[in-house]
Specification:
With 190 residues, the protein is an alpha/beta fold. Helix content is 22%, strand content 14%. An eight-stranded parallel sheet has the order 1-2-3-4-5-6-7-8, with no helix packed on it.
Length: 190
């Protein structure tokens, strides 16, 4: 495991390009939390077909800012199963479509551009955090029917919250809970 969470000031796209070119092929977990100098170019270097780090199974990019692009470059990490990407506010549902089907754990808290479409094809997910996203009734229905391995779902609580808390109705939330009593539903506030 390589963790750069204490070095966020110097980790930028150039560092990711160096890791991509000469990093250890055996590396499976990379933590880049709070490295807000990373942009979509750095993620593309990390995930391209020539990267030495294509074997990553877990990536954490917590609070890396709004310059990470749509998330589409993550599809290049063919073995990625765990993604911690809270507050990656530029990620979109369409951008993540190539990686979501293989994720076992996904934390998208605060990714407010994510909508119902992010829930499609998440057949392997066990733990999913969609708090403070724009997922609504349709997304909950898709998860209830199309995510058989889902065990824990996190959503933003709707009262007195300054962040986007989803576009789901209480009726849809109740229907979800009734249809999938096997899922631990967690309502969280900021």
């Amino acid at each position: 495991m390589m963790q750069h969470s204490k070095c966020e000031r110097w980790v930028d796209d150039a560092v990711l390009q160096c890791l991509s070119a000469a990093g250890p092929q055996s590396l499976r977990t990379l933590v880049l939390d709070h490295c807000d100098s990373i942009t979509d170019q750095g993620l593309q270097a990390l995930c391209n077909q020539h990267s030495q780090l294509r074997g990553l199974t877990a990536l954490s990019i917590k609070s890396c800012g709004f310059r990470l692009g749509s998330g589409s470059s993550l599809a290049g990490l063919e073995h990625l199963a765990r993604l911690e990407a809270p507050w990656a506010t530029s990620f979109t549902s369409a951008g993540l479509a190539g990686v979501c089907p293989r994720l076992v754990h996904a934390n998208f808290q605060g990714c407010d551009l994510l909508d119902d479409h992010v829930c499609q094809g998440m057949t392997e997910v066990h733990t999913l955090n969609l708090a403070f996203t724009s997922v609504g009734d349709r997304g909950l229905a898709v998860l209830a029917q199309g995510s058989p391995k889902l065990a824990s779902l996190y959503l933003g609580i709707r009262n007195n919250n300054i962040y986007t808390t989803g576009h789901y109705s209480e009726a849809a939330l109740l229907a979800f809970a009734r249809s999938r009593p096997d899922i631990s539903l967690h309502l969280i506030s900021a």
